[in-house]
Amino acid sequence: MSAHIANGRLVVWITLFIGMMFQIMPLPEIAAAWRPDWLLMVMIYWGMALPHRYSILTAWVLGVLLDVMLGATLGVRGLAFALVIYAVELHFQRLRNFPRWQQTLVIAIFICIYHLIVYWTEFVVVGDSAFSTDMFLPAISSMLIWWWVFWMLRNIRHRYKVR
């Protein structure tokens, strides 16, 4: 067994890859506005669970990669992911100890902040971004599935002894 599998790095990168695939997966137009922020939720989980290993640089790289895959303005999601993960890592010990319902509300707030940063950055850089409250729909859907995402990733972390 290689060192990467033994300490779980490969497992974490597989979960991040799956989060990226869910993030770019095509959805019907009616459901696209409600798409949960899969990659951000996975990054938030690993940022809370292993802040010393998966942090701001990981978030920035994955955000830039997501920008490339979406054909969006380069660096916008990288900046937004990095800022959100920075906030998560500032308070990771507190977040870990919150009850799940309270953690869910904080995750929804982080996702709203992420969308506001993306909107603001695109507005400043590109200038043609229009504000819509629909940008907060992913926060609602992400909030509804956070317990399941947390439970899945926690079980994966314990099963493969990710440290």
From TrEMBL:
The keyword Membrane applies. InterPro entries: Cell_shape_determining_MreD, MreD_proteobac. The gene is mreD. One of its GO terms (biological process) is regulation of cell shape. NCBIfam families: shape_MreD. Involved in formation of the rod shape of the cell. May also contribute to regulation of formation of penicillin-binding proteins. GO terms for cellular component: plasma membrane. It comes from Shewanella gaetbuli. This is Rod shape-determining protein MreD. The chain crosses the membrane at residues 6-26, 104-123, 135-153. Belongs to the MreD family. It is a multi-pass membrane protein. Its main location: membrane. It is found in: Cell inner membrane; Cell membrane. Keywords: Cell inner membrane, Cell membrane, Cell shape, Membrane, Transmembrane, Transmembrane helix.
